Amino acid sequence: CWALWLSRNDMVFDKSPSISYMQVIFRTIYWLRFWAQLQKCEDDGELMKVACRRLETTVMQLFANYGWRFTNRLQ
Length: 75
Description:
Blueprint lengths: L1 H12 L7 H17 L4 H24 L10
């Protein structure tokens, strides 16, 4: 939710061009990894890191299957 809020604020207040789904997803993954580092229990942090890697891989495969090339520049 935080990544969606930040992306919305970028578009509304900073007048940045439209933000792609990929930018929002990877911003979400960034915040999840950050949250994982703050976990007191190492097992919870490790679990979140693994989940982030799986989410990132799944998203990249999904977009690749529908024609998104990774050489395209994110704006």
